[in-house]
Design a protein that fits this description.
Layout: E1 2-4, E2 10-12, E3 23-28, H1 33-37, H2 53-65, E4 75-78, H3 82-91, H4 93-98, E5 103-105, H5 123-129, H6 147-150, H7 157-163, H8 170-186, E6 191-196, H9 198-204, E7 217-221, E8 226-229
Helix pairs in contact: 2-3
Organism: Polysphondylium violaceum
GO cellular component, one term: cytoplasm
Pfam family, one: His_Phos_1
Length: 232
């Protein structure tokens, strides 16, 4: 393992006492069909893309890597995006069941909404595809949308994105990140896993660490922003 400082440098990993201190394992989802199709300057219009064949393989490999975490987590949290839920289902759920670890779904760390794939799907549709997860606490449209369309269910959000377009501001993203950190600090658990997304994590670390690779596991200490690569 290598330890990352906030300037992006790597140092030798250090064993850190965890009593009373938050230790977070951040995991980027496995490869999606959007990841496999997108090119710079081109959006393939794949909304809430599912895992690619390679992504399914990566998620199954995660099932082995998750058993090697230095500390057993007390809580696992996935975003409601399909690629994150599918990664959690294939790569983490069995581990969670064997260790009696609760699994939650939270939109707090959903992806920075810039492209088609950053858009979620309504809760009712996601629930049909992923009945293993409790989505009861989610709003029907749980991801960021412009205020003028978020609650107007006569508007097809995918068609609106294709024709009119919209993007979440970086200012709003940073507000979400602040709420994410606050939520973590308020939780009673000291060791948690979050399955999430590359742009969200990139901004979480103030753009000072490289983008996470698919299914990469990074250990993070919110109080100091120190991070340790568990897998590369």
């Amino acid at each position: 393992m290598s330890t990352n400082t906030m300037d992006g440098a790597s140092t030798t990993a250090v064993t850190v006492p965890t009593t009373g201190r938050k230790k977070i394992y951040l995991i980027r989802h496995a490869q999606s069909t959007y990841n496999a199709s997108a090119r710079k300057g081109y959006d393939p219009m794949l909304f809430d893309a599912r895992l690619s064949e390679l992504g399914i393989t990566q998620a199954e490999e995660l099932a082995n890597n998750i058993t090697k975490l230095p500390s057993i987590p007390q809580l696992i949290v996935s975003t409601p995006m399909s690629r994150a839920l599918h990664t959690t289902k294939r790569g983490i759920l069995e581990y969670a069941k064997c260790n009696n670890i609760p699994v939650m779904v939270s939109p707090l760390h959903h992806e920075f909404v810039r492209t088609s794939d950053d858009n979620g799907r309504p809760k009712s549709l996601v629930a049909k595809d992923y009945p293993e997860f409790d989505l009861s606490q989610l709003e029907e449209r749980w991801w960021w949308l412009p205020a003028n369309i978020k609650d107007d269910f006569s508007i097809d959000t995918e068609e609106y994105f294709k024709t009119v377009g919209y993007q979440e501001s970086e200012e709003h993203l940073m507000t979400r990140i602040s709420k994410f950190k606050e939520w973590i600090n308020q939780r009673p658990e000291t060791v948690m896993v979050f399955v999430g997304h590359s742009d969200f994590f990139y901004h979480l670390f103030e753009k000072k660490l490289p983008y996470f690779k698919n299914c990469q596991i990074v250990e993070w200490y919110p109080d100091t922003m120190e991070s340790v690569n568990i897998t590369n």
